[in-house]
Amino acid sequence: MQPPPPPAQQITFLYAEDLAASRRFYEAVLRLSVVQDQGRCAIYAAAPGGRAFLGVCQARGPRQAGDPRREGGVVLTLVSEAVEAWHAWLAAQGIACDGPPRRNEATGITHIFFRDPAGYLLEIQRFERPDWPAPAPPAPGG
């Protein structure tokens, strides 16, 4: 038996009680494009190339308190060379970050953390190590 081909795309789904506020955040602040509106869930292109997506959906109930970096938690990381520009943009939009961009020597990244309207922890990071794969160039017309 042959193994199946590797996944061609990826979607991370987040759930929010105030779906309208989350949609405004992802569309106006992070400037992600909606690729499919399912009513109770919007799916956004998280990066060019049609490979990475983010779904923001209506929650079935309130979020339970806890550290998002523990089992069952979620941290959404967006990779960008422009961490400092993102920090300035978020501040201009009234979004509080956990501090200015900082370098993590152990992992070879520079990053910031902030939260979306539903309380999810988001990170924007830049890899500063030679073993991180460069993104594929966008497909023609895409």
Features:
alpha/beta; 2,3-Dihydroxybiphenyl 1,2-Dioxygenase, domain 1; four-stranded mixed β-sheet; Glyas_Fos-R_dOase_dom; VOC_core; Glyoxalase
Number of strands: 8
CATH homologous superfamily annotation: 2,3-Dihydroxybiphenyl 1,2-Dioxygenase, domain 1
Low-confidence stretches: none
Task: Determine Rg (CA atoms, Å).
Answer: 16 Å
Continuous helix count:
2
| Helix and strand sequence | EHEEEEHEEE
Write up this protein.
The longest helix is centred in the first third of the chain and has 11 residues, at 19-29. It is globular, with a radius of gyration of 16 Å. The chain starts with 9 loop residues before the first strand and ends in a 15-residue tail after the last strand. The chain is α/β, with parallel strands linked by helices. It has a four-stranded mixed sheet, covered by helices on one side. Strands 5-8-7-6 form a four-stranded mixed sheet, covered by helices on one side. Strand 2 and strand 3 form a beta hairpin. The chain has one domain (10-127): 2,3-Dihydroxybiphenyl 1,2-Dioxygenase, domain 1, CATH 3.10.180. 12% of the residues are buried. It is built from two helices and eight strands, in the order E-H-E-E-E-E-H-E-E-E. The model has no long low-confidence stretch (mean pLDDT 87).
